[in-house]
Protein backbone atom coordinates (compact mmCIF):
# COMPACT_ATOMS: atom_id res chain seq x y z
CA UNK A 1 0.00 0.00 0.00
CA UNK A 2 1.32 3.47 -0.88
CA UNK A 3 1.63 6.27 1.68
CA UNK A 4 -1.30 7.97 0.02
CA UNK A 5 -3.56 4.94 0.31
CA UNK A 6 -2.53 4.40 3.96
CA UNK A 7 -3.37 8.02 4.77
CA UNK A 8 -6.64 7.69 2.85
CA UNK A 9 -7.58 4.64 4.85
CA UNK A 10 -6.74 6.45 8.10
CA UNK A 11 -9.12 9.24 7.17
CA UNK A 12 -11.99 7.27 5.64
CA UNK A 13 -11.78 4.10 7.74
CA UNK A 14 -11.01 0.64 6.37
CA UNK A 15 -14.67 -0.12 5.55
CA UNK A 16 -15.03 2.96 3.37
CA UNK A 17 -12.24 2.13 0.98
CA UNK A 18 -11.50 -0.76 -1.35
CA UNK A 19 -8.67 -1.43 -3.78
CA UNK A 20 -10.12 -4.78 -4.77
CA UNK A 21 -10.52 -5.00 -8.55
CA UNK A 22 -13.76 -7.01 -8.42
CA UNK A 23 -15.37 -4.57 -5.92
CA UNK A 24 -14.48 -1.65 -8.14
CA UNK A 25 -15.29 -3.29 -11.47
CA UNK A 26 -19.05 -2.47 -11.71
CA UNK A 27 -18.30 1.23 -11.19
CA UNK A 28 -15.52 1.52 -13.75
CA UNK A 29 -17.74 1.29 -16.81
CA UNK A 30 -20.39 3.83 -17.79
CA UNK A 31 -24.10 3.02 -18.17
CA UNK A 32 -23.92 2.64 -21.92
CA UNK A 33 -20.83 0.45 -21.68
CA UNK A 34 -18.85 2.79 -23.89
CA UNK A 35 -16.12 3.88 -21.47
CA UNK A 36 -14.03 1.75 -19.19
CA UNK A 37 -11.38 3.00 -16.77
CA UNK A 38 -9.37 2.02 -13.73
CA UNK A 39 -8.73 3.50 -10.29
CA UNK A 40 -6.29 2.97 -7.45
CA UNK A 41 -9.15 2.88 -4.93
CA UNK A 42 -12.87 3.32 -4.52
CA UNK A 43 -13.72 5.42 -1.51
CA UNK A 44 -17.18 6.05 -0.05
CA UNK A 45 -17.09 8.80 2.60
CA UNK A 46 -19.87 8.91 5.20
CA UNK A 47 -20.02 12.68 5.66
CA UNK A 48 -18.85 16.08 4.44
CA UNK A 49 -16.09 16.49 7.04
CA UNK A 50 -14.46 13.19 6.11
CA UNK A 51 -14.80 14.01 2.43
CA UNK A 52 -13.12 17.39 2.97
CA UNK A 53 -10.12 15.66 4.57
CA UNK A 54 -9.96 13.20 1.68
CA UNK A 55 -9.92 16.00 -0.89
CA UNK A 56 -7.23 17.90 1.04
CA UNK A 57 -5.09 14.75 1.08
CA UNK A 58 -5.64 14.16 -2.64
CA UNK A 59 -4.70 17.79 -3.37
CA UNK A 60 -1.47 17.41 -1.38
CA UNK A 61 -0.58 14.23 -3.29
CA UNK A 62 -1.96 15.59 -6.61
CA UNK A 63 -4.18 12.53 -6.91
CA UNK A 64 -7.11 12.93 -9.33
CA UNK A 65 -10.63 12.46 -7.94
CA UNK A 66 -13.52 11.18 -10.04
CA UNK A 67 -16.83 11.82 -8.27
CA UNK A 68 -19.59 9.34 -8.92
CA UNK A 69 -23.26 9.21 -7.93
CA UNK A 70 -25.52 6.61 -9.51
CA UNK A 71 -23.29 6.13 -12.59
CA UNK A 72 -26.32 6.66 -14.83
CA UNK A 73 -24.70 9.50 -16.79
CA UNK A 74 -24.68 9.31 -20.57
CA UNK A 75 -21.35 10.92 -21.47
CA UNK A 76 -18.72 8.97 -19.52
CA UNK A 77 -18.37 11.76 -16.93
CA UNK A 78 -18.14 9.44 -13.92
CA UNK A 79 -15.68 6.98 -15.47
CA UNK A 80 -11.97 7.46 -14.71
CA UNK A 81 -9.31 7.20 -17.43
CA UNK A 82 -7.30 4.02 -17.87
CA UNK A 83 -4.16 5.17 -16.00
CA UNK A 84 -5.27 3.86 -12.60
CA UNK A 85 -4.05 7.09 -10.94
CA UNK A 86 -7.43 8.38 -9.82
CA UNK A 87 -9.56 7.57 -6.83
CA UNK A 88 -13.18 6.91 -7.61
CA UNK A 89 -15.26 8.83 -5.08
CA UNK A 90 -18.64 7.23 -4.54
CA UNK A 91 -21.20 9.58 -3.03
CA UNK A 92 -23.85 6.88 -2.60
CA UNK A 93 -23.26 6.48 1.14
CA UNK A 94 -24.11 10.12 1.81
CA UNK A 95 -27.84 9.67 1.41
CA UNK A 96 -29.45 11.38 4.39
CA UNK A 97 -32.33 13.82 4.25
CA UNK A 98 -31.05 16.60 6.48
CA UNK A 99 -34.11 18.77 6.68
CA UNK A 100 -37.59 19.43 5.41
CA UNK A 101 -39.56 22.67 5.43
CA UNK A 102 -43.17 22.06 4.45
CA UNK A 103 -44.15 25.74 4.66
CA UNK A 104 -41.34 26.96 2.44
CA UNK A 105 -41.56 23.80 0.32
CA UNK A 106 -37.93 22.94 0.64
CA UNK A 107 -35.88 19.82 1.31
CA UNK A 108 -32.19 19.48 2.19
CA UNK A 109 -30.86 16.24 0.75
CA UNK A 110 -27.36 14.84 0.69
CA UNK A 111 -25.70 14.23 -2.65
CA UNK A 112 -26.15 10.45 -2.59
CA UNK A 113 -29.95 10.51 -2.27
CA UNK A 114 -31.44 8.62 -5.21
CA UNK A 115 -34.02 10.56 -7.21
CA UNK A 116 -36.76 7.96 -6.76
CA UNK A 117 -36.23 8.05 -2.98
CA UNK A 118 -36.37 11.83 -3.04
CA UNK A 119 -39.73 11.59 -4.80
CA UNK A 120 -40.94 9.20 -2.09
CA UNK A 121 -39.82 11.39 0.83
CA UNK A 122 -41.44 14.48 -0.68
CA UNK A 123 -44.68 12.61 -1.31
CA UNK A 124 -44.85 11.43 2.31
CA UNK A 125 -45.01 15.10 3.30
CA UNK A 126 -47.67 15.91 0.71
CA UNK A 127 -45.21 17.64 -1.64
CA UNK A 128 -43.38 16.78 -4.84
CA UNK A 129 -39.93 17.10 -6.36
CA UNK A 130 -40.95 17.75 -9.96
CA UNK A 131 -37.88 16.62 -11.91
CA UNK A 132 -38.00 13.07 -13.19
CA UNK A 133 -36.18 10.95 -15.77
CA UNK A 134 -35.71 7.37 -16.92
CA UNK A 135 -32.66 6.81 -14.71
CA UNK A 136 -34.53 7.84 -11.52
CA UNK A 137 -33.83 4.50 -9.80
CA UNK A 138 -30.09 5.23 -9.73
CA UNK A 139 -29.46 8.93 -10.49
CA UNK A 140 -28.49 10.87 -7.36
CA UNK A 141 -28.99 14.46 -6.23
CA UNK A 142 -25.26 15.18 -6.67
CA UNK A 143 -25.20 13.74 -10.18
CA UNK A 144 -28.39 15.55 -11.18
CA UNK A 145 -26.95 18.86 -10.01
CA UNK A 146 -23.55 18.23 -11.58
CA UNK A 147 -25.09 17.45 -14.97
CA UNK A 148 -27.87 20.05 -14.64
CA UNK A 149 -30.24 17.23 -15.55
CA UNK A 150 -33.44 17.85 -17.46
CA UNK A 151 -35.96 15.07 -18.04
CA UNK A 152 -39.59 15.03 -18.97
CA UNK A 153 -41.06 17.78 -16.76
CA UNK A 154 -38.79 20.66 -17.80
CA UNK A 155 -41.59 22.25 -19.80
CA UNK A 156 -43.26 23.42 -16.60
CA UNK A 157 -40.60 23.22 -13.89
CA UNK A 158 -37.28 23.87 -15.61
CA UNK A 159 -34.02 21.92 -15.40
CA UNK A 160 -32.19 21.12 -12.17
CA UNK A 161 -30.82 24.68 -12.12
CA UNK A 162 -34.32 26.02 -11.49
CA UNK A 163 -34.85 23.63 -8.58
CA UNK A 164 -31.68 24.17 -6.55
CA UNK A 165 -31.91 26.80 -3.83
CA UNK A 166 -28.45 26.21 -2.42
CA UNK A 167 -25.56 23.76 -2.25
CA UNK A 168 -22.94 22.56 0.15
CA UNK A 169 -19.74 21.47 -1.56
CA UNK A 170 -16.15 20.49 -0.95
CA UNK A 171 -13.86 22.59 -3.13
CA UNK A 172 -10.65 21.29 -4.76
CA UNK A 173 -8.43 22.48 -1.86
CA UNK A 174 -10.55 20.58 0.67
CA UNK A 175 -12.42 23.62 2.00
CA UNK A 176 -16.14 23.35 2.63
CA UNK A 177 -18.50 25.79 0.94
CA UNK A 178 -21.70 26.05 2.96
CA UNK A 179 -24.36 27.56 0.75
CA UNK A 180 -27.39 25.70 2.06
CA UNK A 181 -29.09 28.61 3.79
CA UNK A 182 -32.64 29.18 2.54
CA UNK A 183 -32.11 32.75 1.33
CA UNK A 184 -34.51 34.24 -1.16
CA UNK A 185 -32.11 37.03 -1.98
CA UNK A 186 -28.33 36.89 -1.93
CA UNK A 187 -26.20 39.21 -4.01
CA UNK A 188 -22.71 38.54 -2.74
CA UNK A 189 -21.18 38.44 -6.18
CA UNK A 190 -20.55 35.32 -8.25
CA UNK A 191 -22.94 32.55 -7.30
CA UNK A 192 -20.86 29.46 -6.62
CA UNK A 193 -24.00 27.34 -6.72
CA UNK A 194 -24.51 28.18 -10.36
CA UNK A 195 -20.89 27.38 -11.18
CA UNK A 196 -21.23 23.96 -9.55
CA UNK A 197 -24.50 23.16 -11.31
CA UNK A 198 -23.51 21.52 -14.59
CA UNK A 199 -19.79 21.46 -13.66
CA UNK A 200 -19.68 17.64 -13.91
CA UNK A 201 -17.45 17.37 -10.85
CA UNK A 202 -14.68 19.51 -12.37
CA UNK A 203 -14.91 22.35 -9.82
CA UNK A 204 -15.70 20.53 -6.59
CA UNK A 205 -17.88 17.91 -5.03
CA UNK A 206 -21.50 18.63 -4.22
CA UNK A 207 -22.23 17.12 -0.80
CA UNK A 208 -25.78 18.35 -0.16
CA UNK A 209 -28.38 20.64 -1.66
CA UNK A 210 -31.44 22.49 -0.63
CA UNK A 211 -34.06 21.80 -3.27
CA UNK A 212 -37.32 23.33 -4.30
CA UNK A 213 -40.50 21.29 -3.89
CA UNK A 214 -43.89 21.96 -5.41
CA UNK A 215 -47.44 21.05 -4.48
CA UNK A 216 -48.45 17.42 -4.84
CA UNK A 217 -50.59 16.48 -7.78
CA UNK A 218 -54.26 15.96 -7.08
CA UNK A 219 -54.59 14.04 -10.33
CA UNK A 220 -53.16 13.79 -13.81
CA UNK A 221 -54.17 12.61 -17.23
CA UNK A 222 -51.69 11.10 -19.64
CA UNK A 223 -52.55 11.11 -23.31
CA UNK A 224 -50.99 9.11 -26.13
CA UNK A 225 -51.65 10.48 -29.60
CA UNK A 226 -50.81 9.46 -33.15
CA UNK A 227 -49.62 12.22 -35.50
CA UNK A 228 -48.89 12.55 -39.19
CA UNK A 229 -45.75 14.69 -38.93
CA UNK A 230 -43.43 16.71 -36.72
CA UNK A 231 -45.16 19.85 -38.01
CA UNK A 232 -48.47 18.58 -36.61
CA UNK A 233 -46.71 17.82 -33.34
CA UNK A 234 -45.52 21.43 -33.11
CA UNK A 235 -49.03 22.70 -33.93
CA UNK A 236 -50.49 20.44 -31.26
CA UNK A 237 -47.96 21.67 -28.71
CA UNK A 238 -48.81 25.31 -29.42
CA UNK A 239 -52.54 24.55 -29.35
CA UNK A 240 -52.23 22.85 -25.94
CA UNK A 241 -49.95 25.54 -24.55
CA UNK A 242 -52.57 28.09 -25.51
CA UNK A 243 -55.48 26.13 -24.06
CA UNK A 244 -54.09 24.11 -21.15
CA UNK A 245 -51.30 26.52 -20.18
CA UNK A 246 -49.56 25.56 -16.97
CA UNK A 247 -51.53 22.34 -16.65
CA UNK A 248 -49.33 20.74 -19.30
CA UNK A 249 -46.21 19.26 -17.72
CA UNK A 250 -44.84 17.07 -20.44
CA UNK A 251 -44.90 16.85 -24.22
CA UNK A 252 -42.70 14.12 -25.67
CA UNK A 253 -42.52 12.95 -29.26
CA UNK A 254 -41.24 9.71 -30.74
CA UNK A 255 -41.44 8.05 -34.17
CA UNK A 256 -43.09 4.69 -34.79
CA UNK A 257 -39.75 2.89 -35.10
CA UNK A 258 -38.76 4.03 -31.64
CA UNK A 259 -42.02 2.68 -30.21
CA UNK A 260 -41.50 -0.62 -32.07
CA UNK A 261 -38.05 -0.93 -30.54
CA UNK A 262 -39.45 -0.60 -27.02
CA UNK A 263 -42.24 -3.10 -27.73
CA UNK A 264 -39.66 -5.59 -29.03
CA UNK A 265 -37.10 -5.29 -26.24
CA UNK A 266 -38.95 -4.28 -23.07
CA UNK A 267 -41.15 -6.98 -21.52
CA UNK A 268 -44.65 -5.96 -20.46
CA UNK A 269 -45.01 -3.00 -22.85
CA UNK A 270 -48.01 -2.70 -25.22
CA UNK A 271 -48.77 -0.36 -28.10
CA UNK A 272 -51.10 2.36 -26.74
CA UNK A 273 -52.91 2.89 -30.07
CA UNK A 274 -54.64 0.31 -32.26
CA UNK A 275 -52.70 1.30 -35.37
CA UNK A 276 -49.28 2.61 -36.26
CA UNK A 277 -48.64 6.32 -36.91
CA UNK A 278 -45.57 8.11 -38.29
CA UNK A 279 -45.21 10.04 -35.02
CA UNK A 280 -46.50 9.75 -31.49
CA UNK A 281 -46.85 12.33 -28.72
CA UNK A 282 -47.05 11.60 -25.02
CA UNK A 283 -48.70 14.44 -23.15
CA UNK A 284 -49.20 14.90 -19.43
CA UNK A 285 -51.87 17.23 -18.07
CA UNK A 286 -51.96 17.75 -14.31
CA UNK A 287 -53.88 19.44 -11.51
CA UNK A 288 -52.27 20.50 -8.24
CA UNK A 289 -54.91 22.98 -7.22
CA UNK A 290 -58.50 22.02 -6.38
CA UNK A 291 -59.88 25.09 -8.19
CA UNK A 292 -58.31 24.02 -11.52
CA UNK A 293 -60.24 21.94 -14.04
CA UNK A 294 -60.13 18.14 -13.94
CA UNK A 295 -57.23 17.12 -16.24
CA UNK A 296 -59.12 14.09 -17.60
CA UNK A 297 -62.01 16.32 -18.71
CA UNK A 298 -59.59 18.88 -20.14
CA UNK A 299 -57.82 16.12 -22.05
CA UNK A 300 -61.13 14.81 -23.39
CA UNK A 301 -62.19 18.25 -24.66
CA UNK A 302 -58.82 19.26 -26.07
CA UNK A 303 -58.19 15.97 -27.85
CA UNK A 304 -61.66 16.20 -29.42
CA UNK A 305 -60.82 19.66 -30.71
CA UNK A 306 -57.35 18.59 -31.85
CA UNK A 307 -58.96 15.78 -33.84
CA UNK A 308 -61.46 18.18 -35.43
CA UNK A 309 -58.64 20.54 -36.38
CA UNK A 310 -56.78 17.64 -38.00
CA UNK A 311 -53.82 17.88 -35.64
CA UNK A 312 -53.93 14.26 -34.50
CA UNK A 313 -54.96 11.01 -36.14
CA UNK A 314 -55.79 9.07 -32.98
CA UNK A 315 -55.62 9.44 -29.20
CA UNK A 316 -56.06 7.45 -26.04
CA UNK A 317 -56.46 9.05 -22.62
CA UNK A 318 -55.26 7.10 -19.59
CA UNK A 319 -58.20 5.54 -17.79
CA UNK A 320 -56.23 4.80 -14.63
CA UNK A 321 -52.97 5.62 -12.90
CA UNK A 322 -51.68 2.18 -13.97
CA UNK A 323 -52.31 3.04 -17.61
CA UNK A 324 -50.67 6.46 -17.18
CA UNK A 325 -47.61 4.68 -15.74
CA UNK A 326 -47.64 2.19 -18.62
CA UNK A 327 -47.50 5.06 -21.15
CA UNK A 328 -44.59 6.67 -19.31
CA UNK A 329 -42.83 3.33 -19.05
CA UNK A 330 -42.66 3.23 -22.83
CA UNK A 331 -41.05 6.66 -22.94
CA UNK A 332 -38.66 5.92 -20.08
CA UNK A 333 -37.53 2.64 -21.65
CA UNK A 334 -36.39 4.05 -24.98
CA UNK A 335 -32.71 4.21 -23.93
CA UNK A 336 -32.76 0.69 -22.50
CA UNK A 337 -34.49 -0.73 -25.59
CA UNK A 338 -31.99 0.92 -27.84
CA UNK A 339 -29.09 -0.44 -25.81
CA UNK A 340 -30.52 -3.92 -26.44
CA UNK A 341 -31.07 -3.25 -30.15
CA UNK A 342 -27.41 -2.70 -31.05
CA UNK A 343 -24.78 -0.01 -31.54
CA UNK A 344 -25.86 3.56 -32.13
CA UNK A 345 -24.39 7.05 -31.94
CA UNK A 346 -26.48 9.06 -29.51
CA UNK A 347 -26.78 12.81 -29.76
CA UNK A 348 -28.45 14.77 -26.99
CA UNK A 349 -28.84 18.10 -28.74
CA UNK A 350 -31.06 21.13 -28.77
CA UNK A 351 -32.23 23.65 -31.32
CA UNK A 352 -34.64 26.55 -30.82
CA UNK A 353 -38.00 24.80 -30.08
CA UNK A 354 -39.68 26.31 -33.16
CA UNK A 355 -37.07 24.62 -35.41
CA UNK A 356 -37.11 21.17 -33.80
CA UNK A 357 -39.46 19.48 -36.26
CA UNK A 358 -37.78 20.99 -39.31
CA UNK A 359 -34.36 19.93 -37.99
CA UNK A 360 -35.49 16.33 -37.56
CA UNK A 361 -37.13 16.24 -41.00
CA UNK A 362 -34.02 17.68 -42.63
CA UNK A 363 -31.33 15.70 -40.82
CA UNK A 364 -32.80 12.18 -40.53
CA UNK A 365 -32.90 11.47 -44.31
CA UNK A 366 -29.55 13.22 -44.76
CA UNK A 367 -27.89 10.82 -42.33
CA UNK A 368 -29.53 7.72 -43.76
CA UNK A 369 -28.55 8.67 -47.31
CA UNK A 370 -24.96 9.51 -46.51
CA UNK A 371 -24.37 6.56 -44.18
CA UNK A 372 -26.05 3.72 -46.02
CA UNK A 373 -27.64 1.06 -43.83
CA UNK A 374 -27.95 3.32 -40.77
CA UNK A 375 -31.28 4.27 -39.23
CA UNK A 376 -31.79 7.75 -37.79
CA UNK A 377 -34.24 8.02 -34.93
CA UNK A 378 -35.13 11.29 -33.28
CA UNK A 379 -37.27 11.58 -30.18
CA UNK A 380 -37.45 13.93 -27.27
CA UNK A 381 -38.78 16.86 -25.37
CA UNK A 382 -40.58 18.94 -27.97
CA UNK A 383 -41.40 21.85 -25.69
CA UNK A 384 -37.70 22.29 -24.90
CA UNK A 385 -36.34 21.80 -28.43
CA UNK A 386 -34.32 18.90 -26.98
CA UNK A 387 -33.84 16.08 -29.45
CA UNK A 388 -32.25 12.73 -28.71
CA UNK A 389 -31.01 12.10 -32.22
CA UNK A 390 -29.73 8.56 -32.44
CA UNK A 391 -28.20 6.98 -35.51
CA UNK A 392 -28.22 3.21 -35.36
CA UNK A 393 -25.42 1.23 -36.98
CA UNK A 394 -26.12 -0.97 -40.01
CA UNK A 395 -27.28 -4.39 -38.76
CA UNK A 396 -24.39 -6.68 -37.82
CA UNK A 397 -21.88 -3.87 -37.17
CA UNK A 398 -19.22 -4.39 -34.54
CA UNK A 399 -19.89 -1.74 -31.86
CA UNK A 400 -16.30 -0.79 -31.03
CA UNK A 401 -14.99 -0.43 -34.57
CA UNK A 402 -18.17 1.19 -35.91
CA UNK A 403 -18.19 3.79 -33.10
CA UNK A 404 -14.61 4.76 -33.90
CA UNK A 405 -15.02 4.98 -37.67
CA UNK A 406 -18.40 5.76 -39.18
CA UNK A 407 -19.83 6.64 -35.77
CA UNK A 408 -17.36 9.49 -35.35
CA UNK A 409 -18.12 10.87 -38.81
CA UNK A 410 -21.84 10.76 -38.03
CA UNK A 411 -21.38 12.69 -34.80
CA UNK A 412 -19.18 15.30 -36.43
CA UNK A 413 -21.77 15.84 -39.17
CA UNK A 414 -24.62 15.97 -36.64
CA UNK A 415 -22.83 18.52 -34.47
CA UNK A 416 -21.89 20.67 -37.46
CA UNK A 417 -25.55 20.75 -38.43
CA UNK A 418 -26.60 21.59 -34.87
CA UNK A 419 -24.24 24.57 -34.81
CA UNK A 420 -25.52 25.68 -38.20
CA UNK A 421 -29.06 25.63 -36.81
CA UNK A 422 -28.07 27.75 -33.75
CA UNK A 423 -28.31 24.79 -31.42
CA UNK A 424 -26.30 23.18 -28.62
CA UNK A 425 -24.32 19.93 -28.88
CA UNK A 426 -25.37 19.09 -25.32
CA UNK A 427 -28.92 19.75 -24.18
CA UNK A 428 -29.13 17.86 -20.88
CA UNK A 429 -26.55 15.07 -20.57
CA UNK A 430 -23.45 17.23 -20.36
CA UNK A 431 -20.06 16.94 -22.06
CA UNK A 432 -18.16 14.34 -19.98
CA UNK A 433 -15.43 12.64 -21.99
CA UNK A 434 -17.73 11.89 -24.91
CA UNK A 435 -18.15 15.45 -26.26
CA UNK A 436 -15.02 17.12 -24.92
CA UNK A 437 -13.31 17.26 -28.30
CA UNK A 438 -16.45 18.42 -30.05
CA UNK A 439 -16.98 21.18 -27.48
CA UNK A 440 -13.47 22.45 -28.18
CA UNK A 441 -13.95 22.16 -31.94
CA UNK A 442 -17.27 23.93 -32.09
CA UNK A 443 -17.26 26.57 -29.34
CA UNK A 444 -16.32 30.21 -29.55
CA UNK A 445 -13.01 31.29 -27.99
CA UNK A 446 -15.00 33.32 -25.46
CA UNK A 447 -16.78 30.21 -24.18
CA UNK A 448 -13.75 27.92 -24.15
CA UNK A 449 -11.32 30.41 -22.65
CA UNK A 450 -13.78 31.23 -19.87
CA UNK A 451 -14.22 27.55 -19.03
CA UNK A 452 -10.45 27.05 -18.93
CA UNK A 453 -9.86 30.16 -16.81
CA UNK A 454 -12.55 29.26 -14.25
CA UNK A 455 -11.22 25.72 -13.98
CA UNK A 456 -7.62 26.93 -13.51
CA UNK A 457 -8.66 29.41 -10.83
CA UNK A 458 -10.69 26.96 -8.79
CA UNK A 459 -8.69 23.78 -9.34
CA UNK A 460 -5.07 24.84 -9.96
CA UNK A 461 -3.71 21.29 -9.66
CA UNK A 462 -6.34 19.91 -12.02
CA UNK A 463 -7.32 17.08 -9.66
CA UNK A 464 -11.10 17.36 -10.03
CA UNK A 465 -12.39 14.92 -12.61
CA UNK A 466 -9.60 15.49 -15.16
CA UNK A 467 -10.30 14.66 -18.78
CA UNK A 468 -13.95 15.69 -18.53
CA UNK A 469 -15.76 18.71 -19.89
CA UNK A 470 -12.83 21.16 -19.97
CA UNK A 471 -10.80 21.09 -23.19
CA UNK A 472 -7.03 20.94 -22.79
CA UNK A 473 -5.59 24.27 -21.69
CA UNK A 474 -2.42 23.94 -23.76
CA UNK A 475 -2.99 26.77 -26.20
CA UNK A 476 -5.33 29.71 -25.56
CA UNK A 477 -8.13 29.77 -28.10
CA UNK A 478 -8.13 32.76 -30.40
CA UNK A 479 -10.40 33.81 -33.18
C1 LIG B 1 -32.56 5.25 -18.66
C2 LIG B 1 -31.96 6.60 -18.45
C3 LIG B 1 -32.68 7.74 -18.80
C4 LIG B 1 -32.13 9.00 -18.62
N1 LIG B 1 -32.87 10.09 -18.94
C5 LIG B 1 -32.37 11.32 -18.75
C6 LIG B 1 -33.15 12.48 -19.04
O1 LIG B 1 -34.28 12.40 -19.50
N2 LIG B 1 -32.59 13.68 -18.79
C7 LIG B 1 -31.33 13.83 -18.28
O2 LIG B 1 -30.87 14.96 -18.06
N3 LIG B 1 -30.57 12.74 -18.01
C8 LIG B 1 -31.05 11.51 -18.22
N4 LIG B 1 -30.29 10.41 -17.94
C9 LIG B 1 -28.88 10.59 -17.55
C10 LIG B 1 -28.57 10.56 -16.04
O3 LIG B 1 -29.56 9.93 -15.29
C11 LIG B 1 -28.33 11.99 -15.53
O4 LIG B 1 -27.21 12.54 -16.18
C12 LIG B 1 -28.09 12.05 -14.00
O5 LIG B 1 -28.06 13.39 -13.63
C13 LIG B 1 -26.82 11.37 -13.56
O6 LIG B 1 -26.86 11.21 -12.16
P1 LIG B 1 -25.87 10.16 -11.44
O7 LIG B 1 -26.05 10.30 -9.98
O8 LIG B 1 -26.07 8.82 -12.00
O9 LIG B 1 -24.46 10.77 -11.87
P2 LIG B 1 -23.17 10.00 -12.39
O10 LIG B 1 -23.45 9.32 -13.66
O11 LIG B 1 -22.59 9.20 -11.30
O12 LIG B 1 -22.23 11.27 -12.66
C14 LIG B 1 -22.55 12.19 -13.66
C15 LIG B 1 -21.54 13.35 -13.59
O13 LIG B 1 -21.70 14.08 -12.38
C16 LIG B 1 -20.50 14.00 -11.58
N5 LIG B 1 -20.94 13.83 -10.20
C17 LIG B 1 -21.74 12.86 -9.68
N6 LIG B 1 -21.98 13.12 -8.39
C18 LIG B 1 -21.33 14.25 -8.08
C19 LIG B 1 -21.21 15.04 -6.89
N7 LIG B 1 -21.81 14.70 -5.77
N8 LIG B 1 -20.44 16.16 -6.95
C20 LIG B 1 -19.81 16.53 -8.08
N9 LIG B 1 -19.90 15.83 -9.22
C21 LIG B 1 -20.66 14.71 -9.23
C22 LIG B 1 -19.71 12.84 -12.14
O14 LIG B 1 -18.32 13.01 -11.93
C23 LIG B 1 -20.09 12.90 -13.61
O15 LIG B 1 -19.32 13.87 -14.26
C24 LIG B 1 -30.81 9.13 -18.09
C25 LIG B 1 -30.10 7.99 -17.73
C26 LIG B 1 -30.66 6.74 -17.89
C27 LIG B 1 -29.86 5.55 -17.48
Which features would summarize this protein structure in a list?
seven-stranded antiparallel beta sheet, binds flavin-adenine dinucleotide, single chain, five-stranded antiparallel beta sheet, 16 helices, alpha+beta
Detailed description of the structure:
The protein has 479 residues and is of the alpha+beta class. The protein has helices at 3-12, 21-24, 48-61, 115-124, 141-146, 154-157, 192-196, 230-244, 256-265, 295-308, 321-332, 334-341, 356-370, 399-420, 436-442, 445-458; strands at 17-18, 41-43, 65-68, 87-90, 97-101, 106-110, 127-128, 164-170, 176-179, 205-212, 214-215, 219-227, 248-255, 279-287, 314-317, 344-350, 375-381, 386-392. It contains 16 helices and 18 strands. The strands form 4 sheets. It has a 7-stranded antiparallel sheet, with helices on both faces. The protein has a 5-stranded antiparallel sheet with strand order 5-6-10-8-9. Strand 5 and strand 6 form a beta hairpin. The protein is globular. It binds flavin-adenine dinucleotide. Residues 31, 66-74, 77-78, 91, 111, 133-135, 138-140, 142-144, 146-147, 149-151, 200-201, 205-206, 335-336, 428-429, 432, 465, 468 line the site of flavin-adenine dinucleotide.
Amino acid sequence: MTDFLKALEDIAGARAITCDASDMEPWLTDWRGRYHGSAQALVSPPDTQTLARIVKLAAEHRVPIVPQGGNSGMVGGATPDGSGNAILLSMRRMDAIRGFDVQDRQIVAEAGVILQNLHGVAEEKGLRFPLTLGGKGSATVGGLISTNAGGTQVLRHGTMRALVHGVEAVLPDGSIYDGLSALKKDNRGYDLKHLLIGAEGTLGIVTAASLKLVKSLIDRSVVWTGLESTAKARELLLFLQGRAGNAMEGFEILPQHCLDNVLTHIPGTRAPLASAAPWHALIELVRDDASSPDPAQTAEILMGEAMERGLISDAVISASEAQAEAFWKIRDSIAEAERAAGPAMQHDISVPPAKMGAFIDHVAPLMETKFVGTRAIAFGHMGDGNIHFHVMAPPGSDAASWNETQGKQISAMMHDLVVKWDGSISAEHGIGQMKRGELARLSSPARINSLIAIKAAMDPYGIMNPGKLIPLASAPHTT
